[in-house]
Amino acid sequence: MRTSRLQLLAAAGVAVASLALTACQDGTGTRDEGASASGPVASAPSDTSSQAPKESASDNGGNDSSANGSSGDAAGTGDSGGKGSSAGKGGSSAGKGSASGGSDDAPASFNPCNGSNTSVTAEPVSRPVNHMLITVENTGSQNCDLPYYPVLRFDEMQWVPQPVEDSKPQAVVTLAPGESAYAGVLLSAADGSGSGGTTGKKLTVGFQGRTPNSDGGPAAIPALPAKGVYYDSSLTVTYWQSSMDDALAY
User: Fold this and answer.
1) What is the DSSP letter of 161?
2) Under 8 Å CB-to-CB from 243, ≥6 apart: which residues?
3) Where does the DUF4232 domain start and stop, copy by copy (predicted)?
4) Which DSSP state fits 70?
5) Predicted confidence band at 209 (pLDDT cuts at 50, 70, 90)?
6) Against a cut of 0.70, is the pTM above it?
């Protein structure tokens, strides 16, 4: 009985061993091990692919720094562009400053004084001798400008009296409503050196525009003394002045 049990156990052990050997021979165990090994193998590409971006990021790190350099250059260009833009503004300000300043001969905003918006008088004076004073009063409602000097003509005179260049002011004379400006006229030479002396009965006072010798609008014809005004070839006139004393200083 005992021997039979031992024989049965031995037979069972042989059967188990045969089954294990069969399992090994048909590759089932290898397939199982392969399946468990396939986990790391599958994860390896995953790790490799996850490392590739890191390496790429590392490589890109250099590229990033060069990209940053490029963006830095771009920023520099932007800065220089900003400077250029600032310079452009500065230029516009300069243009704008240059325009507002205008020239000595004409203001930026120009409204000429003439016979339509002023009252004009012409009166000989006792001092200095042989001089006449022309006075222009702004009778309009707006400021007006008196560039250069009056263009004088006695009767049918065929020549234009020249200005005294030393009397040229630093800026155009501008008159507010009710204000006056002046011009002095040397009628004849005190020492008698002038020629072609004659007596004028009528005086026309012309006004200049923004540019020299341009038309500034209607002329004025101020009244002269009944006996007229004597003048000769020495006839000259000053530029328009804000002060009566300045007008008679030449």
Assistant:
1) P
2) 182
3) 113-241
4) H
5) very high
6) no
Residue type, 28: T
Cα–Cα distances in Å, from 81 out to 18, 73, 76, 85? 88, 12, 8, 6
Rounded to an integer, the average pLDDT of 225-240 is 97
- Residue 168 in this model has a pLDDT that exceeds 90: yes
Q: Which of 122, 125, 152 is nearest to 134 (CA)?
A: 122
Q: Find out whether 111 and 144 touch, Cβ atoms under 8 Å.
A: yes
Q: What are phi and psi of 135, to 5 degrees?
A: -120, 130
Contact 133, 185 (CB under 8 A): yes
20 vs 8: CA distance, rounded Å: 18
Question: Can you say how many angstroms the Cα of residue 9 is from the centroid of all Cα atoms in its chain?
Answer: 112
Choose among 144, 162, 149, 152: nearest CA to 122: 152
Instruction: Match 């002038």 to its residue by tokens.
Output: 194
Identify the CA nearest to 222 among candidates 250, 185, 248: 185
Amino acid at 48: T
Other Cβ atoms within 10 Å of 32 Cβ, number? 11
The mean pLDDT value for 222-229 works out to 96
Interval 86-99 mean pLDDT:
35
Q: Directed axis angle between helix 2-25 and helix 28-101, to 10°? A: 40
Asked if the model's pLDDT at residue 136 lies above 50, the reply is yes
Single-letter amino acid, residue 23: A
Using alpha carbons, select from 155, 83, 146 the residue that is nearest to residue 117: 146
- What does residue 228 show for φ and ψ, rounded to 5 degrees? 85, -175
